[in-house]
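BACKBONE GEOMETRY TOKENS:
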Amino acid sequence: GSSLLTGPEGLLAKERESLKRLKCLRRYRQRYGAEALLHRQLRERRLLASDGTAQQAHTTRSSQRCLAFVDDVRCSRQPLPLSRHCLLHICQDTNQTLFKPCQGSEEVPCNKPVAANLSEEPCCPLHLRLPPQMYVPEQGLAVPEELEAAPSDLYLSAAELQPTESLPLEFSD
């Protein structure tokens, strides 16, 4: 190993070839010139981007709270993803379109946020109006008396279902 570091003088041809191959292998994956500069800049940008987002996400998650105020006290709940308000106060956000307040009824007003789906008047489960019943069962289905007392001679016994000598087997069913 020490003779390789001294230089090409005093080395055999085989050792010089080995030294040349060793130097090539050591810098095989290294970049030079403009390529090295661009690679270093890209690595620095990636490092800043990943560290910046990880640090920013950590600080925003730990300190982020709902922006709504209740009796001059800020709400302590976590906001919904990609929003600044929690589920209770999401209707205070004028830019959101996913939730609407429940209309409630005349007797009991309600302002619970409800997902604004395809219905025109979204309601919470408490104030949901069910549609009228579509199936009305008949009161009493009268069975005629002649069907109730069916004659027993209509039914055949197991012995009578067996094939006889007079009928071939294919017609016995």
